[in-house]
Prior knowledge:
By secondary structure, the chain is mainly alpha-helical. The protein has one domain (16-231, 241-304). 76% of the residues lie in helices and 0% in strands. The chain contains 13 helices and no strands. It is globular. The two termini are 38 Å apart. The model is unreliable at 304-309 (pLDDT under 50).
Amino acid sequence: MSPSAITTRFNNLPANAKGAAFLMVAALFFSLMVALIKLLGQNYNITQILLVRQAIMTAIVAPAIWQNFPDALKSTRPGLQLIRIVLALVAMLLGFTAVVHLKLADVTAIAFAKSFFVTIFAVIILKETVGLRRWAAVGVGFIGVMIMLRPGADAFSIYGLYAVISAGCAGLVMVIIRIMSRTDAPITILTWQAIGVGLVIAIPGIWFWQWPSPVEWLIFIAMGIVSYIAQMFNIHAYKWGEASVLASLDYVRLIYATILGYLIFSNLPGSQTWIGAAIIIAASIYTIRREAKRKQKLVRSPEGRGFNN
């Protein structure tokens, strides 16, 4: 089939089908990004990995930033911008440290708990109204997290707790972005993120720097490019499809993570992971559907899905 015929067939698809197609690719690239970070983390400090990732992604978006510079730095909420940068850094540092030390499927499933933290912070900060059923879904979701973490058991890992804290910080970042977006342009939020995170992570990244081999440089570069592609496909997915439909499909990442974990690292998730993940996903999907009925989009927005801080 010719490229033009493929394009024509794609354009004739329903909007949700187009969005779903983009989302499946985005989920794959997000999972591949996490796998590459885990691979690099066997030999390199996580701050160096984040420094290279941030440098590559900033270089890609630099033309858009430069076109609006220095006006893009003019924020009405500089304090919130700084808080968001710190929280995003904590989320990435702890989240990617957990990626290095846990099975891909485990850390992917725990990261889905971000939806519950968004609900909690939306109530506390944005004063959103949440009914008893959504609070019940949050509670059930955290039961799923506890099943996966197994606190008090011999199998408990501090890195699982890192993953939970990362999800909490990421959820708070979501709420802060919601507040900032009322007064600051998207390019302003992007510019503060790119420059702020880059400057802060540069200090420990350079301190722990080890020169990669040519092959490892290729992995580093691939990790940065894959991160950018994942975010772009994610944005286009939500541009086409309905948020409630796509957010429910996004849990395919767990399947991708399981496959990549087996193919690259020769490990498979245990029964506790599947049980806990099933509870987390069911509670998350219920939360998403309740948001759709109440015409809210905080948990269902594209920024609310995955490691795209």
